[in-house]
Amino acid sequence: MEIINTIGRRKTSIARVYVKPGKGTILINDRELATYFTSEILQITVKQALTLTKADGNYDVTVNVEGGGNKGQAEAIRLGIARALVTINNENRAPLRKEGLLTRDSRMVERKKPGRRKARRKFQFSKR
């Protein structure tokens, strides 16, 4: 099997995910998973698709991620890994779809409008 290349996006984060058969190492921007995401919750988020399909130690995952914050990057990586697992084996589609891991979360930050303080917040009204 060759290297599978997929993309995951969330908010302003873009993750390019490369999956190949191996021992289960996850490298994010040339760093280990535990050093890149120190939070246990974000580590579980990244591994969620692998644990759901029982493929934890079967694949080596290399990720280049940019933009956004920690949570957005973790969820972008999760989407990329889920898409790669479906490409490898189409039987993974049903459990991943049921958990909602194949759906791109399209929510983005609303832009700031002119004449307002933020996207929707108006300037404070002064009566006098």
How would you summarize the topology of this molecule?
Blueprint: E1 4-10, E2 13-21, E3 26-28, E4 31-32, H1 33-36, H2 40-52, E5 59-66, H3 70-88, H4 93-99
Parallel strand pairs: 3-5
Antiparallel strand pairs: 1-2, 2-5, 3-4
Helix pairs in contact: 2-3
Description:
The chain has 128 residues and is an alpha+beta fold. The protein has one domain (4-99): Ribosomal Protein S5, domain 2. The chain is built from four helices and five strands. The protein has helices at 33-36, 40-52, 70-88, 93-99, and strands at residues 4-10, 13-21, 26-28, 31-32, 59-66. A five-stranded mixed β-sheet has the order 1-2-5-3-4. Helix 2 packs parallel to helix 3. The longest helix is centred in the middle third of the chain and has 19 residues, at 70-88. The termini are far apart. The mean pLDDT is 95.
Reported for the largest beta sheet, the result is: 5 strands, mixed
Q: Any idea how many domains? A: 1
Structural class: alpha+beta
Number of helices: 4
- Terminal Cα span: 73 Å
Strands of the largest sheet, in order across it?
Answer: 1-2-5-3-4
Spans of at least 5 consecutive residues with low confidence = none
Order of helices and strands: EEEEHHEHH
Helix percent band? 25-40%
DSSP, total strands: 5
Overall mean pLDDT stands at 95
CATH first level:
Alpha Beta
Tell me briefly what this model is.
By secondary structure, the protein is α+β, with helices and mostly antiparallel strands. It is built from 4 helices and 5 strands.
List keywords for this structure.
128 residues; Ribosomal Protein S5, domain 2; single chain
